[in-house]
Amino acid sequence: MTVITRFAPSPTGFLHIGGARTALFNYLFARRHNGKYVLRIEDTDRQRSTEKAVEAIINGLDWLELSGDEQPVFQYSRQERHKQIVNTLLEQGKAYKCYCSADELEEMRALARREGKTALYDRRWREKDPSTAPCNIDPVVRLKSPLKGSTTIDDLVQGRVEVKNEQLDDFVILRADGTPTYMLSVVVDDHDMKISHVIRGDDHLNNAFRQYQLYVAMNWPSPKFAHIPLIHGQDGTKLSKRHGALGIDAYRDQGYLPEALCNYLLRLGWGHENEDIIIRKKAIGLFDISAVGKSPSRFDIKKLDNINATYMREMSETQLFHLLETHLCKNLNMILDPIRLERLKRGLSGLKVRAKNINELAANAMIYIVSPPINTDEKADSILSKDARQLIRGLLEPFNELTNWNKTKIEETLKNFATNNDTKFGSVAQPLRAALTGTTSSPDIFEVIEILGKEEVLQRIEAVC
Ligand code: GLU
Fold it and tell me: Measured from the CB, is residue 186 less than 6 Å from ligand 1?
């Protein structure tokens, strides 16, 4: 069997963390089995679907390198085909027109509620003679669901799940305005697109029982289902913005790396020998949908930060430098001269170990970019007392005289300076760091001094002390 999976978002909102994970699982499953992974935009809800959301979904998937293997299918464009299947079902007596008024449906709902039934519609038009139909009501079309027995789905994640057919409604497949419903369209599309595995959130499990009836009615083979648990927040409730669950674009804007985000999403619900870092290539070789846990996973931003920091440390410096430069120039509109670019290049290894994401890296990199006088933060300010400033001024001379401007010589100069002034090394290094970087934490101070260069260091000291 050729494996074909699909990610089928409704463009009624942006691509969020949960959707991205569903896309990733579909992608990995397809790759693992040398299959195909496609994108279907379910834009049949014309009121709530927006162009902007379609764009955000496509861009988000591109950024995560989870674009489909083919051009996306837009569900709305297949409406005629969906209607055609409704007609087929009507012709074969497997569906029927229902002329209930809104009031009648409301009465039925109230009765079902009183009797504690899940099936709301009493199937009154299932066997009724259509010639008795009222002429002032546009009918909906309903599927004749089985009345007896039960429906079983062997879900690849949930295991064997069963529902009594009496709990299933004769659900609507064509609305009164002539538009096909989601329940119908999804089945027709999955069939026509030869989807072999439907991998999606477990909020769709109930739909699967209904959709299964359509496969039976049409005599189509049903795809295999895998309903993956939703992602919850740290407090165990459904993930929302409150938990930091933002659109994928927000993670990009915060400086997360797409490969790190995917790695994190993969680990939410699936794992291999407790390894946190699983690069995509390895994931493709190992991914097993049936090993996805049944219980919801909890979104943990700290873990995402750790994974992101690891990817940043391990990626090639050329690549990381490119990301930093792009961020500074494109996002922050900076124009960097060759001197500053060179400083950044040399300082990158010291900077990258102190940052969790590209934005933090860029913020830390400012020590190599700003021009004197340097702005000092509150902590740095408190270290730079009058006495401390005076002490640091005393460094102008030995630094000026230093001919070999390298870390070792700089360290030697500072140590001698501390001894000559009868003070501890820390009492020199701390205010010096504050004066040169405007902060109290930076990469190794000797390295910073070497990279800034003699002229810049002297200017920065002059300006602050
Ligand atoms: N369009 C549905 C959604 O965004 C998903 C449908 C499906 O995967 O079957 O929730």
Answer: yes
